[in-house]
């Protein structure tokens, strides 16, 4: 395993990320205590900020794994600072995923950090770099759902409970979508090193359109229904009821007029 000398500034946590984390903490506190006159606004700020935090951690996981796999340029590019403004495509990495959450409540995977793959030797290392991002979403989903599957919801305010459920839904959708073996997504990145050179060359031109193709397919009602049935099944396995995700999404869209937090179902 290769380690690279990196300057302290290359790995210092960015004030931008710290600011996003602070918004997450303050809005989470507001959702928990009912401090906000509009609980939906607190849920919106908490889920959006926490979603951006997870996007930053997703990209950090790619970068950190690449660093220890041989790409010693990662630090100089600023990827270890957790600063989303350092990403190759800030629009794709942050703006579009947030917009899709606001519009449709789906965890759209973003990208990307630019990794110099030529510096990395070994197919397993390439696969692990690609897998690190979705695995981060899986870990985030486990943390969000921990109060549910640990049966530790006593004393958790309903608004905060619903916010966690909706945030977990975003993490599960991001993990599943990004794990699809579609060019341009991390799932394809996992298997790409194991494909023949000929196949990789044939598939390469389609990589920029992979995510768009997935999104287009999800517009098909039958596919969309099957996809969200699978998401609900995963969440139920983690103890999250559809009631929780429904009201989490409803509160998140506070501009639609939801003013009261409905009582939670008995755990």
UniProtKB/TrEMBL annotation:
<dbReference type="InterPro" id="IPR044537">
    <property type="entry name" value="Rip2-like"/>
</dbReference>
<dbReference type="InterPro" id="IPR052348">
    <property type="entry name" value="Metallopeptidase_M50B"/>
</dbReference>
<keyword id="KW-0378">Hydrolase</keyword>
<protein>
    <submittedName>
        <fullName>Site-2 protease family protein</fullName>
    </submittedName>
</protein>
<keyword id="KW-0479">Metal-binding</keyword>
<keyword id="KW-1003">Cell membrane</keyword>
<feature type="transmembrane region" description="Helical">
    <location>
        <begin position="90"/>
        <end position="115"/>
    </location>
</feature>
<keyword id="KW-0862">Zinc</keyword>
<keyword id="KW-0812">Transmembrane</keyword>
<dbReference type="GO" id="GO:0008233">
    <property type="term" value="F:peptidase activity"/>
</dbReference>
<feature type="transmembrane region" description="Helical">
    <location>
        <begin position="12"/>
        <end position="32"/>
    </location>
</feature>
<feature type="transmembrane region" description="Helical">
    <location>
        <begin position="41"/>
        <end position="61"/>
    </location>
</feature>
<feature type="transmembrane region" description="Helical">
    <location>
        <begin position="162"/>
        <end position="182"/>
    </location>
</feature>
<feature type="transmembrane region" description="Helical">
    <location>
        <begin position="127"/>
        <end position="150"/>
    </location>
</feature>
<keyword id="KW-0482">Metalloprotease</keyword>
<dbReference type="GO" id="GO:0006508">
    <property type="term" value="P:proteolysis"/>
</dbReference>
<keyword id="KW-0472">Membrane</keyword>
<keyword id="KW-0645">Protease</keyword>
<keyword id="KW-1133">Transmembrane helix</keyword>
<feature type="transmembrane region" description="Helical">
    <location>
        <begin position="203"/>
        <end position="220"/>
    </location>
</feature>
<comment type="similarity">
    <text>Belongs to the peptidase M50B family.</text>
</comment>
